[in-house]
Amino acid sequence: MANSPQAKKRARQGEKRRQHNAGLRSVVRTSIKKVLAAIATGNAEEATAAYAAAVPVIDRMADKGIIHKNKAARHKSRLNSQVKALAA
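Structure (tokenized):
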């Protein structure tokens, strides 16, 4: 447990940031799930629209450091290949 005032403050700040980042990670996961749900329905137009909405969210979180840039690229690549396969 933190004893010094500085360590106590850092613990408070860390907890606050952890909760904020958890919410942002949840937004990313939700957007990915929306794309996967649209793919599962088999509707190419809906899947394309969901993918187009998810890409800026994923990029924004990668820029903020919430998720790693390579993880963001991997998600976008896999989702895009699934959407393209559905449209074909």
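The chain has a mean pLDDT of 96. The first helix runs from residue 5 to 41.
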